[in-house]
Amino acid sequence: MNHATGHLALDAEALYAQLLAGVRPALRPDTRLAGIASGGAWLAGRLQRDLNLPGSAGVLSSAMHRDDFAQRGLASSAQTQLPFDVNGADILVLDDVLYTGRTIRAVLNELFDYGRPARVRLAVLVDRDGRELPVAAEFAAARIALPASQHLALARSDAGMFHFDVKEV
Strand, helix or coil at 54? Predict the structure, then answer.
């Protein structure tokens, strides 16, 4: 890990290629992609294009259902946008980093506010361990252990290339 630049020595683009390869065989005709704002939404949008799927990927915001809403308030994150019918759909939720599971819990509540999907699955770029809720990803491109004092998030260059930022918290 290179602390001077704040970039984790994980190749986010190589992990994205693994995510793409792992997600492709799991798709069904009724599968819809929905990414958690913001890193997961970036992943979902790029997968939507790279898999040549029709329409647009959805964006899920966890803001309204977070258990720490009183402390965080409404973040400046994107609002939920689901350009497809949730009812009866196979929803593949994408996130950049799975950590405590609390964001996933909030996003599932948000998703069910829009309807009742037939199935919901989770795919992540990185599972960093440290779960506080019984949440597991069906697919993770990498599984790593980081100290709780470090925050890991996907970042995107102006050219759309992915890398990781790590910050001490």
Answer: coil
Report CA 42 to chain centroid distance, whole Å.
Answer: 8
Residue corresponding to tokens 């020595």? 9
pLDDT, one tens digit per residue, over 22-36 is 999 999 999 999 999
- Output the DSSP codes for 83-131: -S--TT-EEEEEEEEE-SSHHHHHHHHHHHTS---SEEEEEEEEE----
Cα 118 from Cα 144, distance rounded (Å): 31
162: number of Cβ within 10 Å: 20
pTM (two decimals)? 0.90
Q: Please, are residues 100 and 131 in contact by the beta-carbon 8 Å criterion?
A: yes
Which residue is it, tokens 């199935």? 119
Peptide bond just before 38 cis, omega within 30 deg: yes
Residue 10: CB atoms within 10 Å: 18
The pLDDT tens digits of the residues spanning 121-147 come to 999 999 999 999 999 999 999 999 999
Residue 8: band (very low, low, confident or very high) from pLDDT cuts 50, 70, 90: low
